[in-house]
Specification:
The protein is α/β, with parallel strands linked by helices and 138 residues long. It has one domain: 3-Layer(aba) Sandwich (Rossmann fold). 42% of the residues lie in helices and 23% in strands. Strands 1-3-2-4-5-6 form a 6-stranded mixed sheet, with helices on both faces. Strand 4, helix 3 and strand 5 form a beta-alpha-beta unit. The chain is globular.
């Protein structure tokens, strides 16, 4: 697990918000982590490469937001989303996928995700959604 922090307190939060990135490809995991640390104030990003690593974190120290890849080794992201929502109902899950297929969008939402972002879209969309989940009313 990797941990990255941007705890500048610009918006008045005393403790950083925890965001968990679940992504098996190191380059994508690092890019998403760098994006979030750079774009979202007062955030601590944890990064793991499988759902099996994410579930114990969500059970013992639930993050505010999980960025979940769908195609993972072992348990897939849709199954993991469903389990995370059962373990930690307050945790918001954003599915982040290479595919923009409607069946994956529907499956993600049915599993309890609050948003779906295609990896092909602008990275600012992902950062904006995370910001809104942490500081807005989504």
């Amino acid at each position: 697990m990797c941990i990255f922090t941007r705890a500048d307190g610009r918006l008045g939060a005393a403790r950083p918000f925890i965001v968990l990135v679940v992504e098996d490809h190191a380059a994508t995991r690092n890019a998403v982590t760098t994006l979030l640390v750079g774009a979202v104030p007062n955030v601590q990003v944890l990064a793991v490469d499988s759902a099996e690593q994410a579930l114990p974190i969500c059970e013992t120290a639930p993050p505010a937001v999980v960025i979940m890849d769908i195609s993972l080794p072992g348990m897939n992201g849709i199954e993991a989303t469903q389990q995370i929502r059962q373990l930690s109902p307050a945790t918001r899950v954003v599915v982040h996928s290479n595919s923009d297929a409607q069946v994956l969008r529907d499956g993600s939402m049915a599993a309890g995700a609050c948003a779906f972002v295609s990896k092909g879209r602008a990275s600012s969309e992902l950062a904006g959604i995370v910001f809104e989940l942490l500081y807005g009313s989504r």
